[in-house]
Amino acid sequence: MTEVERHNYDVVVIGAGGAGLRAVIEARQRGLSVAVVCKSLFGKAHTVMAEGGCAASMGNANSHDNWQVHFRDTMRGGKFLNNWRMAELHAKEAPDRVWELETYGALFDRTPDGRISQRNFGGHTYPRLAHVGDRTGLELIRTMQQKIVSLQQEDYRRYGDYEAKLRVFAECTVTELIKEDGHIAGAFGYWRESGRFVLFETPAVVLATGGIGKSFKVTSNSWEYTGDGHALALRAGAGLINMEFVQFHPTGMVWPPSVKGILVTEGVRGDGGVLKNAEGERFMFRYIPDVFKGQYADSEEEADRWYSDQEGNRRTPDLLPRDEVARAINTEVKEGRGSEHGGMFLDIASRLPTEEIRKRLPSMYHQFRELADVDITAEPMEVGPTCHYVMGGIEVDPDTAAATVPGIFAAGECSGGMHGSNRLGGNSLSDLLVFGRRAGLGAAEYVESLGARPSVPDAEVTAAAKRALAPFDGPEDGTSAENPYTLHTELQQTMNELVGIIRKADEIEKAIDKLAEIRSRIRGVTVEGNRQYNPGWHLAVDLRNMLLVSECVARAALRRTESRGGHTRDDYPQLDAQWRNRLLVCQTTGDEPVPEVDVEAREQQPMRADLLELFELSELEKYYTEDELAGHPERTA
Ligand code: FAD
Fold first, then answer.
1. What's the pLDDT at 136?
2. Which residues of the chain have pLDDT under 50?
């Protein structure tokens, strides 16, 4: 049998971003033994790249803020397709999770009277994002790592071993989840450096692997966003929901080509930056959609007054939810009002003094200086949409984060439901904290409730090793050798061009055909060299996951014949109330080397009456069907 290093833990958390770390802390605090596995270095995750802040209705910058307003904003941002229970838990618990971070040592920026400062972001009624300049994610990760070290020090005092209850396995990629009798029994992977195999025997895994951005050519995401958790869950029998909803952030860098897609934080607009087209027009006033009419300023004067007086004025449409702004930029460029390199201009230079820009947006200042030779205190930035976030993910129980397969839990970007069809900026960091904690707790309670633990069948380990090593075996009979880098480029181009920001049936169908071709060629993927640090092999393994999640995105995008949030159909440009309550659930059948994807439509649970009453009937009428609203108290009164 293949040589495999073995470990045994109560809970194995896969992913060391914000969601994973928060889950680790919770499970360890419940007294369980926990491993955290990450394929990057410990501390390098998308969470560390988060710039703008973490949304929580603490009411520090505007005392009118509360969980109900945050809940309403989140549901509106997601165009009422969100799992309302998740949105409720998130809005209620986010402030406690932020305050708790302070007890771990986080140092947020402060208001003049010493409270945590909160900044404006798109779609949030009040300034709500707790932040540390434009490096908030770094502080989140730093703080939770510090908490983990302090827990390990406690373990050292008690057991004489720092890793007695909590161990970090960095640069270790999980490739398979292993089950026995339908229950999770373990996770299998390899050390990136040595290529040697490792098996975690465990009854519970928390998937916290982040998103899928590396399936697209232009993206703000980095190399580890290959949809691994999504694919692991699918292959283990769990379902993915909302996969058609992919967020294109309106402001990525567009020039020079080597940095295309890198994020320009929404904090630039939150702090006063405005979007202009090549004619110098602040075009966003022309793009306020009907569902948001009346909620946003319709003149530059009112929009500008709003920055200093939010009670008497409506917010600027530069801060509409991301899907609206990205579509507007796309249209302006298409209609010939784009910048030299095909973007729009984002101007903070003429809006804030130099020192203020450098103080509030230090990373943006350096990013543009170093990468584009642009001084953002003197000139506008050129920006355009970039694939940023996936709203779709593993279907979970809102309260426990349990997936439908016993022993799988999921939190953070790889889980689905919370953000509906479009996530508001800042709502990811808070999501990680709220549902990371709940996933750690859910996994701990599940493990405590088990009688006997499932054991890992040897045959499954052998099969997992064989699958991982297949790219070294050369092409299967009847296929020609394929280079993983070539296939990855073709996959990214297909997704970007045919299932990108604006979609239509014939293009999505073309994409599905191309994905089928890649699926047949993937059998031939061949890598050279040996198992020691071999990036070509790592990509070959990741490619199967990217192909699988891309198929989910494309197939669900074809099924949803309406436009909503992060899914825009040129051939079905309107919201369709009949679709609001329908989830598309992706599942797989078969196995080798990439299983087939099936998509099924399913109805969501209707929103609880006390939550529904938080909205004006006139607003609900823009989203709901007449039948759904027939029982509304205002209708029956
Ligand atoms: P991540 O933080 O990405 O962590 C994923 C982890 O999983 C990593 O440790 C990775 O190594 C590991 N992993 C993946 N696959 C495997 C595998 N097979 N085996 C082992 N380990 C694996 N959101 C906000 O709310 N506010 C912001 O200001 C903000 N700014 C952003 C700026 C940028 C540039 C980007 C890219 C995103 C931003 N976001 C922001 C979004 C937010 O940062 C992410 O959605 C969030 O951090 C995801 O956290 P996570 O814990 O789910 O995953």
1. 94
2. none
Query: Which element (helix H / strand E) includes 379?
Result: none
Read off the DSSP letter of residue 565: T
* pLDDT of res. 112: 92
Domain that includes residue 306, residue range? 252-385
Residue 599 lies in a domain: no
From 37, 429, 437, the mutation candidate for ligand 1 (largest count of ligand atoms within 8 A of CB) is 429
Query: In total, how many domains does the chain have?
Result: 2
Residues with CB under 6 A from ligand 1: 14-20, 37-40, 45-47, 49-54, 136-137, 173-174, 208-210, 220-221, 224, 228, 263, 389, 412-414, 425-429, 432
Instruction: Report d(CA 153, CA 159) in Å as an integer.
Output: 10
The reported pTM is 0.95
Question: What is the C-alpha to C-alpha distance for residues 521 and 528, in angstroms, rounded to an integer?
Answer: 17
Measured in degrees and rounded to the nearest 5, phi and psi for residue 455 equal -115, 155
- How far apart, in whole angstroms, are the C-alpha atoms of residue 35 and residue 168? 6
Give the pLDDT confidence score for residue 1 in this predicted structure. 60
The Å distance, Cα 15 to ligand 1 centre, comes to 9
pLDDT of residue 291: 87
The token pair that represents 368 in the structure block: 């543009």
pLDDT digits (tens, 9 = 90+) for 298-307: 999 999 999 8
How far, rounded to the nearest angstrom, does the alpha carbon of residue 313 sit from its chain's CA centroid? 32
Task: Using the 3D structure, point to which of 348, 364, 385 is the last residue of a domain.
Answer: 385
Catalytic residues: 322
